[in-house]
Amino acid sequence: MKILAIESSCDETAVAIIEKGRHVLFNQVASQINRHRRYGGVVPELASRLHTEMLPTLLSQAETFCDFSSLDAIAVTQGPGLEGSLLVGVTAASVMSFVLKKPLIGVSHLQGHIYAHFLSETPPSFPFLALTISGGHTQLILMQDHGKWELMGQTRDDAVGEAFDKVARLLHLGYPGGPEIERLALKGDAFAFPFPQPLKHDPYAFSFSGLKTAVMQVVQRYEGDLPVADIAASFQHAVIQVLLFKAKKALEQTGCETLLLCGGVAANRTLSDAFKNAFGQKVQVLDPRLCTDNAAMIGAAAYYLYVHQLCPNLPLRVYSS
């Protein structure tokens, strides 16, 4: 079964062709980062316009790898994300589905991040825990089987990636903030500033707005040259310790033997190394190219939704949260 997948939830335009939910035949991502960097973050209207410009080019490239008449289904991210950006992808997928007379499968962007692990050489076995850490979401999910999952906890305010971006802005670093903070943190002292590790009393809820505020207070009160590397390292250390603490509690309670790191922040090498050191072979980490937004993960999720008859009812709708 071959599925063409489209991802356009935020600032990456992506198209992929996936076979049998495991094999990547085509996977291309057109990043918009350079266009948004001058504004210090994603501009929704600009993102929608760039998706409209790039998607036809990527689809044309995909057709050179696979005759579209041989496809079995069309998949697309329907949310969460920027509504205008999602609408571009959903509209294109809907038209292709109609013209080619192929089933249309709507996929949650968060499902995609989890199912990206089914593209690895050693796909996970149920049950497992999935820690999704991205720019817009922080969630701890217990997956018992396809379509059978439990949300154990999520952030009450800022997501992990959002906190990285906001702290980077406080430190006058570039966008996106995660890679910049990770790069500087390698040169800094992770114990220079004892930043708080929020919600240690709650095993599964996350909160990062207070940590961001603590960094802001240090920046505002500091006299002399700001030790940016030490602040970055201390902030990153606090985030990692919170995530490790929650993951450890969840593994103990559920008895799961597998923990998946999912989402763009999982591309942070310092973070993934900390999880490997803490949990050894229990933790599964992806190639960074599959951690960040891509369409291959959407195609993988769509395959399992389709074969297990878990597809949402048509017509598709976009949703931002």
Could you give a quick summary of the protein structure above?
With 321 residues, this protein is of the alpha/beta class.
Explained architecture:
By secondary structure, the protein is an alpha/beta fold. It has two domains: 2-115 and 291-307, ATPase, nucleotide binding domain (Nucleotidyltransferase, domain 5), CATH 3.30.420; 126-285, Nucleotidyltransferase, domain 5, CATH 3.30.420. It is built from eleven helices and ten strands. It has helices at 33-37, 44-65, 83-100, 109-115, 160-170, 177-185, 209-221, 228-254, 269-279, 288-291, 296-307; strands at 2-7, 12-19, 23-31, 73-79, 104-108, 128-133, 138-145, 148-154, 259-262, 283-284. The strands form two sheets. The chain has a five-stranded mixed beta sheet with strand order 3-2-1-4-5, sandwiched between helices. Helix 5 crosses helix 6 (177-185) and helix 6 crosses helix 8 (228-254). The chain starts with a strand and ends in a 14-residue tail after the last helix.
How is the secondary structure organized here?
Elements: E1 2-7, E2 12-19, E3 23-31, H1 33-37, H2 44-65, E4 73-79, H3 83-100, E5 104-108, H4 109-115, E6 128-133, E7 138-145, E8 148-154, H5 160-170, H6 177-185, H7 209-221, H8 228-254, E9 259-262, H9 269-279, E10 283-284, H10 288-291, H11 296-307
Parallel strand pairs: 1-4, 4-5, 6-9, 9-10
Antiparallel strand pairs: 1-2, 2-3, 6-7, 7-8
Helix pairs in contact: 2-3, 4-11, 5-6, 5-7, 5-8, 6-8, 8-9
